[in-house]
Write a structure and sequence with these properties.
heterodimer, A: 487 residues, alpha+beta, MutS, DNA mismatch repair protein, domain I, Dna Ligase, domain 1, 4 domains, 6-stranded antiparallel barrel, 4-stranded antiparallel beta sheet, 14 helices, 19 strands, B: 252 residues, alpha/beta, Rossmann fold, 8-stranded mixed beta sheet, two-stranded antiparallel ribbon, 7 helices, 10 strands, globular, Protein ImuA (chain B), ImuA (chain B)
Chain lengths: 487, 252
């Protein structure tokens, strides 16, 4: 709704129809706190809370919005995404989580990004769609990853509505005294199926992963894609690699017509048993170079299980951006800088894009805050750290407390004990005083660190500091820490 | 030896190199700029397209602080970008900048385990556009080091395996053979006393423990400066094994 949206603190409800009754189909957080629930009659809601803001429900617009959200997830997260109406998305993360630093990071990143745009989301990863569906909706934690092979066990304590059944079936089970998924799993199947129909049995099997449940991936018409259908199913890695190269050729010709370069490529494999396998690769800059793309995709073919064979291979550029051609440097006037984009892509697709970075200076005197990670292909600003202040080669993740013997107020230690080894200081330099950044946190107003560089008898050099306020320094009660190791 | 015999020997050497598959251009070297060290190395410097191993001595075998700055000094004197592969993110980048390696020149890869670290190491070497690739590895088998050596030759890139052991006990593994062209051990030595309170330039004992087509040697040097150059103090110059170890330093 954009700017026309009602404020977040209003008790907003959406009103739909159930036969001739007008019921609430969605309630905002303040309305929920006031005691309103989904499925309540509007008249009852008015009686409970007089000042509610009602808007008519629009299921068609909701479905369209959900599809837009699914498209966004498709471009950013995984190759196989499908809307799961009325309120969910189902994402097959296989072969895509490596680009986001693992499953846990991907999940929390997804929920945080949605949260930043005002969507309160809950997410779960499990072996099966059924288990993930139940876990995302009914587990206490907003993000959860169920252990492999034990998804059904993990969701057995969750309520019946997690089973994706029509409301009348769920209500019927409730009447019979079943309250959790585990209760339903524990009883013999036949009487239940006789009473409620085959859907209940199928949902239970899908939850446990006995019956496979392919996700029908969402596609948008704009996407550049290439497709091969095989008369005889293929399975050998060499064959897959050969057709991958052929598909890349087709795709690149299509991209060239539109002046685009690929940022994300998805290669989908439709197996003969109607299940899907996928490879996703990402590039740091738009690429249309067949060789480079082939290298990136072929690196990951080993993750594909062809099973009984692959019928269809489909390659699509999920995210494509205009490819701007740049003039190459001539050797006449300047030396050519080696292009690292290819190397960055190969490494990022193997071990994850977050693991590849540059370190840039930050204007802060506090050592652990003076560095930050930036993207590997970020432009070099030429900035560096101030010269003249010696900095250690290794910085401990957190300063380790040491025992020292030092003269007050401003002398370096004569002895110190670190990790159980007592060292005598022969030479020292300091103090270099570093103040806390009071403009960041009030607690740092009084924080002071006095850094000393010391050398022990063996020639090893360390970076020590005394922490505490001015008064503590004078009285000698400040605590000492070892923060880094020099060479 | 007569001139004719010399020519025959030189010709034979060239032919052997051709069997090795190495063209003349691959034999470029990176000199330290210190004649005493360069004179000990075949070709007068570190061979550019090959693998070198560096390890910290004594307590530094685990932290590898001196070894890291020694490697950074070498990498700083190459041309182009440097890929730095690590598994433990305790490297403090300002120290690299102080050893002459500006932040804009270093690309870091933080690998999850040794296997992917070696993979990134090799990938960086094969790319060919980098000046040097440094990797902090704990284990380096003969097979792995040979692969890396071949990758370094193929890409024409200087490779430095910075050995960081998990524990001091493991440092004995540094004696096991590998395909590296040279092997260095860097240990810290007490620095020269200054006439005023304070700490002078750090001093290292640099042991050349293995050198293909060369002899072992040790040198006492002053640590890398802001341009990545180590210095050889004339007062300490004669530390070769033949000259004896027991020289005592004049008290300052």
């Amino acid at each position: 709704m954009g700017a026309a949206a009602p404020p977040a603190d209003k008790r907003l409800v959406l009103v739909g129809r159930d036969g001739s009754r007008r019921i609430l189909t969605a309630v905002s957080r303040p309305a929920e706190q006031a005691g309103l629930r989904i499925g309540m009659a509007l008249t009852k809601a008015h009686a409970l809370v007089p000042d509610i803001l009602t808007l008519p429900a629009d299921p068609a617009a909701d479905a369209a919005a959900l599809e837009r959200l699914a498209l966004w997830a498709l471009q950013h997260y995984a190759p196989i995404v499908s809307p799961d109406p009325p309120d969910g998305l189902v994402i097959d993360t296989t072969g895509a989580d490596h680009l986001h630093g693992g499953e846990a990071r991907m999940l929390s990143g997804l929920v945080n990004r949605l949260g930043a745009s005002g969507i309160f989301a809950r997410a779960a990863i499990a072996d099966t769609w059924g288990a993930a569906h139940a876990a995302a909706r009914f587990l206490a934690d907003p993000t959860s990853i169920l252990p492999t092979g034990a998804g059904a066990k993990a969701v057995s304590s969750l309520p019946i509505p997690g089973l994706r059944l029509p409301p009348e079936t769920a209500a019927g089970l409730h009447v019979l005294g079943f309250s959790t998924i585990g209760d339903v799993l524990a009883v013999p199947r036949a009487p239940l199926v006789q009473r409620f129909g085959p859907l209940l049995g199928r949902r239970l099997d899908q939850l446990q992963g006995v019956v496979c449940e392919p996700v029908d991936p969402l596609r948008d018409a704009e996407r550049v894609s290439a497709r091969r259908v095989f008369g005889e199913p293929i399975g050998a890695p060499e064959t897959i690699a050969r057709y991958t190269v052929a598909l890349i050729g087709d795709l690149c010709r299509e991209l060239e017509k539109r002046g685009l370069g690929a940022r994300r490529l998805d290669l989908l494999f439709h197996r003969v048993d109607n299940s899907l396998q996928a490879i996703r690769i990402g590039t740091a800059r738009p690429v249309r170079d067949e060789k480079r793309l082939a290298r990136l995709l072929c690196d990951r073919i080993e993750t594909i299980e062809p099973g009984f064979g692959i019928e269809i291979m489909e390659l699509s550029a999920t995210l494509a951006e205009p490819l701007v051609l740049a003039q190459a440097a001539t050797s006449l006037i300047e030396t050519e800088e080696a292009d690292l984009a290819g190397l960055v892509d190969v490494i990022a697709n193997r071990i994850g894009a977050r693991r590849l970075y540059r370190i840039a200076p930050v204007e802060s005197d506090v050592p652990e805050r003076s560095v930050r990670r930036i993207a590997p292909l970020a432009l070099d600003s030429g900035a560096t750290w101030p010269e003249g202040w010696p900095r250690p080669a290794r910085l401990l993740a957190r300063p380790e407390e040491i025992e020292v013997m030092a003269l007050v107020p401003d002398h370096p230690p004569a002895f110190f004990t670190w990790r159980g080894v007592r060292r005598r200081v022969t030479r020292a330099d300091g103090p270099e005083r570093i103040f806390g950044e009071w403009w960041k946190r009030d607690a740092e107003l009084a924080a002071v660190r006095d850094y000393f560089q010391v050398e022990d008898e063996a020639g090893e050099r360390f970076w020590l500091f005394r922490s505490g306020s001015e008064a503590e320094a004078l009285s000698g009660t400040g605590r000492w820490f070892l923060h880094g190791i020099f060479a | 030896m007569s001139a004719a015999a010399n020519a025959v020997v030189a010709d034979l050497r060239d032919r052997i190199r051709q069997f090795d598959g190495r063209a003349a251009g691959d034999r470029a070297v990176l000199p330290f700029g210190v004649p005493e060290i360069d004179g000990r190395l075949p070709g007068g410097g570190l061979a550019l397209a090959s693998l070198h191993e560096v390890c910290g001595g004594g307590a530094d075998a685990v932290e590898g602080a001196a070894a890291m700055l020694f490697a950074a000094g070498i990498a700083a004197r190459t041309k182009g970008q440097v890929l730095w592969c690590l598994t433990r993110p305790d490297l403090f980048a300002p120290a690299l900048a102080q050893a002459g390696l500006a932040p804009g020149r270093v690309l870091y890869v933080e690998a999850g385990d040794e296997k992917s670290l070696l993979l990134c190491f090799e990938e960086g070497l094969r790319h060919g556009g980098l000046g040097a690739v440094v990797a902090e590895v704990a284990r380096l088998s003969m097979t792995a080091s040979r692969r890396l050596q071949l990758a370094a030759e193929a890409g024409g890139t200087l490779a430095i395996a910075l050995r960081r052991f998990r524990h001091r006990r493991e440092a004995d593994a540094f004696a096991l053979p590998s395909a590296a062209v040279t092997r260095w051990r860097v240990s810290q030595r007490p620095s020269a006393p200054l006439p005023v309170p304070g700490i002078g330039r750090a001093r290292w004992l640099l042991e050349l423990m293995r050198c293909r087509a060369g002899e072992t040697a040790e040198f006492e040097v002053e640590a890398s400066d802001g341009e990545g150059r180590i210095a050889f103090s004339p007062r300490l110059a004669d530390r070769s094994p033949a000259a004896g170890h027991g020289r005592r330093r004049a008290a300052g």
